[in-house]
Specification:
The protein has about 475 residues and is α/β, with parallel strands linked by helices. The protein has a domain of about 220 residues: Amidase signature (AS) enzymes, CATH 3.90.1300.10. The protein contains 16 helices and eleven strands. It starts with 5 loop residues before the first helix and ends with a helix.
Amino acid sequence: MDKRSLSDIQADLKSGNLTVSGLVDHYLEKIEESAELNIFVEVFAQEAKQQADALDAKIKAGKSLGTLYGAIISIKDVICYKDHKVTAASKVLDNFESKFTATALQRLLDEDAIVIGRTNCDEFAMGSSNENSVYGATKNGVDPERVAGGSSGAAAVSVQQDTCLLALGTDTGGSVRQPAAFNGVIGMKPSYGRISRYGLIAYGSSFDQIGVLGTQLDDVYSCIEIMSGPDDMDATSHTAPLDDTQSISSTIQFAVIDEVMNHEKLHESIKLSSANLLKTLTTDGHTVNNIQFPLLKYLVPAYYVLTTAEASSNLGRYDGIRYGHRSEKSNSIDSIFQESRKEGFGHEVKRRIMLGTFVLSSGYYDAYYTKAQKVRRLVTEHIQKILDENDCLIMPTTTDVAWKIGALNDDPVAVYLSDVYTVLANLVGIPAVSIPLGKDDSGNPYGIQVMSKAFSEKKLYHLANVLENTINH
């Protein structure tokens, strides 16, 4: 079943060579086989089987079917699904059950997709390794001693291990693309506002976007397309249509940042593969424009100042009063707040709340938060100019392959800096997709990412197709 496309699955379902029930059983077996990787925090086995039986009956009766019939998906544990638990991999939301379904997920369900379970993640999507979870770390299927990436690490491994066809993750600063690269799968993040955030547990509200991971570009983009569009429940959702007239010429203008391709931290295998890809693109008649981007070193600091500020505000609602974990040690209002948050939040979440509270404090607001907002504006203007003059921006997804579990536990700054190539798309709000590029000498995967103008997902999909074909031939 591995690496089959949805169109292949649907053809087999219509011909009778396959049933949705058989498909679900296959994925459930794969989930059992990969249990030691700690991918799923909950599997909806019975429910998925019932929905599969109902879908098989519809197919047999010749009734009309949704676009995604036969698509079995996993959802990251920050996406709400009515009458199902959602905990953001945190003790503070232990056993919390959602009363509604996220708009993006509902749009997939309306097209006959089936959810097989919820996947592990870094607590409140804060992390780059899937180690900051109350459920423990998710392991990389290529090498179980290495991290899966984060925060959508388990979503990536769920696809890598063939436990589902597609996975919904979230991308705040690369959390779909970085684990996609680490696990050798495709990960796509849409423009900010393209997909509704209603029903997504917030980390950084002006950065978060639901994204998709899979093995087939067509299927990943199809999911993005179906979830897209305005939503009355999300004021930040955008009305820009998916432009079917967007096309690319036979000669593509690729922009490449010199400092990125020659970065001192860039793994030799990634540097070599990227250089070879650029050479092939030039040989194929495309144009590769080397450009300067003097703001590269400011990306990660600006990103972490702004996201931690937003996180400190967003996570204020978890106070032990309204819902979520309440400490039994509490005997006053103040101690309820303090003890519930102390017991409920993990180490990394506490670190980011404190950092965010600091940069928003009266004495440091202008020095950090205001300055980071100015950097964000400058970066946005610079990138818009680059994309006005080129079709897209291309760069490695990560500077290195997945590191060993626990290797960076004492060096959070090194983990933060690992996001240097991915945070750009979130700061600017543009779409980006990571596709597999190669493997190092030990077989660890890495990816290449391409970014295009805001709300040009269809163009990005075509550009990624060109890249994928170039890499594979």
